[in-house]
Specification:
The longest helix is centred in the last third of the chain and has 29 residues. By secondary structure, the chain is α+β, with helices and mostly antiparallel strands. Strand 5 and strand 6 form a beta hairpin. Helix 3 packs across helix 4. The radius of gyration is 20 Å and the shape is elongated. It has 6 helices and 9 strands, in the order H-E-E-E-E-H-E-E-E-E-H-H-H-H-E. It folds into 2 domains: 59 residues, no CATH class; 138 residues, no CATH class. Bound molecules: zinc ion (ZN). The site of zinc ion has 6 residues, from loops.
Length: 212
Amino acid sequence: MSSDEDQHVICFKHCEKNVFVFSVPSRCPLCNQLLEHCKAILPFALPSPFVNATQAPCSVVLRPSRGDFLRDFRNRTNLHIALTDSKGSIVEFDTPGLLCTTSKHVDRSLWGQCLVIADVPDSWFCHWDSTLLRTIEDKGWNRKSYDEEKVNCYSFVLFFLRLLKFEPFMVLAKDMETFSKELVVPKTTHAAKYITIHRNVTKFGFWVEPDR
Ligand SMILES: [Zn+2]
């Protein structure tokens, strides 16, 4: 990971604009005025939409199939989805079949920058873990049954959510189209805005929202 990706975006107000930077400069990049003389620039850190999957217990987590969101996300194709248990172990269904971080076959570093698509309150953790075990023990999730188009990482997650019976996810997991529209698209759309800002600040040193 490059250092840019660890940098948090900071927003401050000047020239009647929201200016995005990685650190507040001494002068406004728009008007060159010294910012130390300005009282109300109100800098705040823009919350990152990304989390490390191992720190998101009992969640549905999403990442690009290759690379990471900040560098490689283009659109909603080629995203990979998985589940975490109450200890933050990642369970995913992929070409080789079922993979779990506890079996050391999953590369944790790939899951360092994820979106949480769905999660449950603490009171559901025990039921989540036992349902996940039941899903893993289901013999259907193996190398032979994997089909990139029809039986893939999403099939595994949707199957689990229907078995979990936690609303509203059970209903939203009834088919891929509903799941994508209701849960995935809102999260990736929000993340795309952050990615745009982050990439522009990386490239130009600062970024200003275009006038509407
Ligand atoms: Zn200014």
